[in-house]
Design brief:
Layout (H helix, E strand, L loop, with lengths): L3 E2 L6 E7 L11 H8 L5 E7 L5 H11 L4 E6 L1 H14 L2 E6 L5 H5 L6 H10 L1 E10 L2 E3 L2 E5 H11 L4 H13 L5 E7 L2 E7 L1 E5 L3 E3 L2 E2 L11 E6 L7 H10 L8 E6 L1 E6 L3 E5 L2 E5 L2 E14 L2
Parallel strand pairs: 2-3, 2-4, 4-5, 5-19
Antiparallel strand pairs: 1-6, 6-7, 6-19, 8-11, 8-17, 9-10, 9-16, 11-14, 12-13, 14-15, 16-19, 17-18
Helix pairs in contact: 2-3, 6-7
Bound molecules: adenosine-5'-triphosphate.
Protein name: Diacylglycerol kinase family lipid kinase
Keywords: ATP-binding, Kinase, Lipid biosynthesis, Lipid metabolism, Magnesium, Metal-binding, Nucleotide-binding, Phospholipid biosynthesis, Phospholipid metabolism, Transferase
GO molecular function: ATP binding; kinase activity; metal ion binding
């Protein structure tokens, strides 16, 4: 493990990229709040709001090329994905202010939703390295997946309402119509054929909101957890929800988890996938891999 606490001679340029729509709450007051609690002996703060999908990535890329050493994703896992992809590319340092709906990676890293506490973590500037991963060349840091998860992300992205309640409502509507597919998986050279309701490739352990799909996954182990949710009768939906909330999916007969580094999945047809909850379209053939301890991130 490589954990640094930086000793400073000059102030660090830090950029906060704030997603105004993540988590479904207004963010206009956020820059003033950050300015009040950020350690200005250490940091020289700048703020910018993302204006559209992909804008946070453009802003982070630009900031990395300019003189910013720390770039903070103020939003959920989708915002972290955009910012961290560029932080990784330029070998800068990622900060996280969890302002999303689910905040899966922030929860895994024990970064609290309470902004004031989250800022004390940024002020402490303890930097650790975590694994990142790729799905057909697209970076992800928390979870990627296909099947029902991906279908739901795709429908949710077109819905006007954000936040947890909107997501759950849509989930209940969609689960009644969704049909399981057959997947051919190759995990580190070993082949498996599985019919699945959803397949998640987990770098961290949870979707967000403490819903654990891969309770034993770690962003420090150099492995991905391939989580196969088997087809199930809707009568068993409460059982599946229960095991995920209890963090016991590994022991449930509804979920199979296989750990690996290189994952190739061939599915019945092309269509929706998600990377960190954001929907994308990909072909039938998907390749996943892990890049051990590749991302610098500020941790508690
Ligand atoms: N100004 C904007 N208008 C519309 N969409 C935006 C804007 N800025 C960023 N986005 C997009 O908002 C999406 C959702 O962001 P994010 O994932 O951070 O929030 P969330 O879905 O509420 O949280 P979580 O992923 O933790 O559940 C991302 O795809 C991002 O590209």
């Amino acid at each position: 493990m490589c954990l640094h606490s930086y000793t400073l001679h000059t102030k660090i340029n830090i950029l906060f990229i704030i997603n105004p729509i993540s988590g479904g709450r207004g963010k206009l007051a956020i820059p003033d709040f950050i300015d009040k609690y950020l350690d200005k002996e250490k940091f020289n703060p700048n703020f910018v709001f993302s204006e559209y999908v992909g804008h946070a990535a453009e802003l982070a890329d630009e900031a990395s090329i300019k003189n910013f050493d720390v770039i903070v994703a103020a939003g959920g896992d989708g915002t972290i994905n955009e910012v961290a992809t560029k932080v990784l590319k330029h070998n800068k340092i990622l900060g996280i202010l969890p302002l999303g709906s689910g905040n899966g990676l922030a929860r895994f890293l024990s970064i609290p939703k309470n902004l004031r506490y989250a800022l004390t973590i940024i002020n402490s500037l303890k930097v650790d390295q975590i694994d990142s991963a790729e799905f057909n060349g697209k970076c992800f840091f928390n979870l990627a997946g296909m099947g029902f998860d991906a279908h739901l992300s795709s429908v949710f992205s077109e819905d006007k309402k954000r936040g947890l309640s909107g997501y759950l409502k849509l989930g209940f509507q969609e689960v009644f119509h969704y049909k399981a597919q057959t997947y051919l998986l190759n995990i580190d050279g070993k082949e498996y054929t599985r019919k699945a309701f959803a397949i998640s490739i987990a770098n961290s352990s949870q979707y967000g909101n403490d819903v654990y799909i891969a309770p034993n996954a770690s962003v420090k182990d150099g492995l991905l957890d391939v989580c196969i949710i088997k087809p199930f009768s809707l009568l068993k939906l409460p059982v599946l929800s229960y095991v995920m909330l209890r963090g016991t999916a590994e022991t449930s007969d509804m979920v199979e988890i296989i750990k690996g580094k290189n994952i190739v999945i061939t599915r019945e047809k092309e269509g929706a996938v998600h990377v960190d909850g954001e929907p994308l379209q990909m072909g039938k053939h998907i390749e996943g891999l892990v890049k051990p301890l590749s991302l610098n991130v500020i941790v508690p």
